Amino acid sequence: PERWRGRLDLIYDPFGEHKCEVCFQCAQVCPVEAIDMSGFDSQGNRIRYGMPEIYDERRDPNAYRRAGLPARPMRNPARWGDPVDEGWVGEVVDGFGARPEALVAMFTAVQERYGYLPERALRVISDRTTIHWAQVFGAAGLGGFRLLPAEGHLVTACTCAACRFSGGEAVLAALADELGVAPGESTPDGAFTLETSPDLAAGAIAPAIRIDTLIYGPVTPEQARHLLGERRRADGHAVARQPAASASRA
Amino acid sequence: MAANPGNGLSPQIRLLAEGEQRLLAGIGHVDPDNTASYRDHGGYSGLERAVAHLGAEGVVEEISQARLRGRGGGGYPTADKWRGARAGSADRRIVIANLMGADPTALGDRALVEGNPHLVLEGVLIAAFATGASEAILAVRRDWKVAIARLKAAIADAERSRFAGYLVMGTDFSCQVSVWEGSGALVAGEETALLAALAGDRGMPVIRPPYPTQRGLWGAPTTIHNGETLAHVAWILSHSAEAFASVGSEASPGTRLVSIYGRVVEPGVVEVPLGMPVGEVVRLAGGATGTVKAVFVGGPGGGALAEPELSTPYDYEPLREAGAGIGLGQMLVTDTATCMVDTARFFLDWSAREACGKAVPCRIGTRRLVEALDRVLAATPRPNDFTLLRELSRKVTDTALCNLEARAPGPMLTTLARFADEYRAHAERGECLAGACRVPEVPPLVTPLPDVEPAAPASSNEPR
Ligand SMILES: Cc1cc2nc3c(=O)[nH]c(=O)nc-3n(C[C@H](O)[C@H](O)[C@H](O)COP(=O)(O)O)c2cc1C
Ligand code: SF4
Ligand code: FES
C-alpha cells in the first residue's frame, strides 16, 4: 500500500526460508490495525488457531482459517455456498433443543445428508444456538468433519500407525496412481475424491481403505485398484440414474 | 491364539487369548445386548455391594486399597481423584467416561464397550455413587457406531432393571446416564478438551488447575475416567481389592489392555499385568515377524525402546524413565527394515497435525521439528538442526498446555538418543541404514555434523 515504509523481518529466517505461519497474531495486536494478511502456511495443512477471544473473529479469512481452510478465497467459492435446505437444518438444531453440547451431533446429521458441512448450514446452526459462527466453524474444523464437498465416491486411505507400518503407504500410492490425483483432490471427471485420514482405526485389518461408508481391509495395492475398478464399472452403467445422495451436487 | 470366534466385536478388533484375562474374560460369553446374561456372569454385583453394603466412603476405601491407577495415560490414583471430587460442597456432580479413543490404534476401550458395555456402565454407576454424582455422560467417539448403539441399549436396559436412573435399587441414589458422541481428533481425548467440546466449544485444552474435579463441566465438579479404569472399578467391587492387586507391579497393580500392532505375528488387543517386561508382551502377540529393532510404546506421546530396553517393565514410571509412556496402551513393533528417522517423523507429524493450535509452541514448534526432520531425511540438513531438535523439543515440552504437546517430541528424542547412527547416515550421506527410504543422491558433507550423538548427560530427564 502507498506511503508504506515498513519492512517485515519476521517473515524469513536466516536461511531464507518462510517462517511466518499466518497465525494472525501480529495483525491481532497491531494497535492501528495496519496489518492485514491472508496466505498459506508452510505445509498447506489444515490450520487451527487459538481461542476466538485472541483473534479478530469478524473477518471472513479468519473464520475460514480457524475452520482449517485455506485463508485465500476458495478455488471454487461457489461450491462452499451450495444451496442448503435451511428449514431442515433448523429442525435438526431444534431437535437437539439448540443445546451447545449437541453441536457435534448436529454436525454429524448435516454431514450424513450432504456429505460435508456447507457454510450456510453452519450459519444456521450458529444463529439458532447463538454460538459465534467463527466458533462453530472452528468446532467443525477441529472435529474432523468435512468442510469441502467430496465429488463422487470418497476414497479414504488410512494413515494411522497400524496401517502405515503394515503396507498402508503402498496402498495409498496405488490409489493415487490409479486415480491420477494426489490425496485431497478430486478426479477431473468428479467420479472420485481421494483423501487420507488417520481415524479409520483399522487395527487387525490394517492396511485399510474406506470407499464412501464401507471399510475394506486388509487390502493389498492390487485389491485397492480392483475395488476402484469395481466402483467405476458400477458407476459406468449407473450413470443414467441419479448418483448416490452424497455425490448429489450437480 | 486369536480369540475372535464371533464374539460380536467389529472386525478391526482381534482379542488375543494370552495374558491375564480379566476384563476381556466376559467378552464372547456375555451377550452384550442382554442385561440378564451380564447378571448371570456376576454383573452388577459390584454395584449392589457398593450401594447396599459399602456406602460411598466404603467404595472409595476399597478402590484405595486396590491402589487402582487411571488407565488414561496419566496413572493418577483413582481413589485420590474421587476424594478430590467429593471434597467441598456442590449441588451438582458429574461423572464422565472418556471413551473418545483418541488414538485410533488403541482399541482396548472399543473392545470393552463393544464386547461388554455393561461392565463399563457398572463402573460409571459405581464411580457416580462414590463421588455423589447424579449425572453421568459416556463420551464416545462418533465413529464407534456399534459401541454407541450397544451402550444406549445397555443404559435403557439398566434403567428398566433399576440399576440406573431414579432410585437405583430402591435406595436414594439416582444417576441419569446419557451417551454423547464426540469428534475423532487426537486432542479430543484430553480431559479438559473433552469438557470444552461437551460445552459446545472447540475441543481445546484449558490450563490447569483448576482441575476438572474442582471445577469441570458447567462449573460442577466432574470426575473424568478412562473407560478401562471404570471397567476395573466394576471388576474390583465384584471381586475384591486383594484379588485385583494379586497381579501387576507393586506401584501399579492390576492389568492393562495393550493394543499391539506393526511387525508382530498376531496384532490385536491383549490384557497383560502391569510390570510385565515389554519384550514379554511382544512375545505374547506371537513375537515379531522379523528381528525387533525398536518397540514404540505409548503412541505419538510415547517413545522408542531399542533391543536392550525391552526388559523395561510395562509400567508407568519405568516407561517414563526410559523415555516412553503407557499412553492408551499402544505398542508398535518395528523390525530392522524400518527406518527410525522416518518413524519418528511419522509420529511427530501426526502430533503436529492433531495439535489444536491453542499454544503457539505446540502449533508452530512441532511443525518446525517436522521440517527439521524433513531436512535430515532429504540429506540437506542445516548445521544447527540437531541442536534445534533438542532445544526446541525442550521448549515445546516445557511450555506444554496439555500432554499431547509435552510428549510430542518423545519418539524423536528417543530414536535420536538410541539410533544416532541412522540420523547421521541420513543427514550426512543421504543413506538409510534400514534401506527403507529412497533418498536423493547427495554429495557427502565435507565436515561431519556437530552433536548428532546425544551430549554428555547434562540433565537427568534426557532419555538414555
Ligand atoms: C492428547 C491426549 C489424548 C487423550 N486421549 C484419551 C482418550 O482417548 N481416552 C482416555 O480415556 N483418556 C485420554 N487421555 C487422558 C485424559 O486426559 C485423562 O487423563 C483420562 O481420561 C483420565 O482418566 P483416568 O483417571 O482413568 O486415567 C488423553 C490425554 C491426552 C493428553
Ligand atoms: S502472522 Fe503470526 S507467524 Fe506470521 S508474522 Fe504475524 S505473528 Fe508471526
Ligand atoms: S494440543 Fe493444543 S495445546 Fe496441546
Would you mind describing this structure in some detail?
The complex is a heterodimer of chains A (250) and B (464). By secondary structure, chain A is α+β, with helices and mostly antiparallel strands. Chain A has 10 helices and 4 strands, in the order H-H-H-H-H-H-H-E-H-H-E-E-E-H. Chain A has helices spanning 25-29, 60-66, 77-80, 86-95, 103-114, 119-129, 133-142, 161-164, 168-179, 221-238; strands spanning 153-158, 192-197, 209-211, 214-216. Chain A has a 4-stranded mixed beta sheet with strand order 2-1-3-4, covered by helices on one side. The radius of gyration of chain A is 21 Å and the shape is globular. Chain A starts with 24 loop residues before the first helix and ends in a 12-residue tail after the last helix. In chain B, the strands form 2 sheets. Chain B has a 6-stranded mixed beta sheet with strand order 1-7-6-10-8-9, sandwiched between helices. A 4-stranded parallel beta sheet of chain B has the order 4-3-2-5, sandwiched between helices. Chain B is built from 17 helices and 10 strands. Chain B has helices spanning 35-40, 45-66, 78-86, 108-115, 117-131, 145-160, 191-198, 227-238, 241-245, 278-284, 316-321, 340-354, 360-377, 385-398, 403-407, 410-418, 420-429; strands spanning 15-19, 94-99, 135-141, 176-182, 222-226, 255-262, 268-273, 292-297, 303-306, 330-335. Helices cover 40% and strands 13% of the residues of chain B. Chain B is α/β, with parallel strands linked by helices. At the A-B interface, helix 5, helix 7 and helix 8 of A face strand 4, strand 6, strand 10, helix 12 and helix 13 of B. Bound molecules: flavin mononucleotide, iron/sulfur cluster (SF4) and FE2/S2 (inorganic) cluster (FES). FE2/S2 (inorganic) cluster binds next to helix 15 of chain B. The site of flavin mononucleotide has 24 residues of chain B, from strand 5 and helix 15.
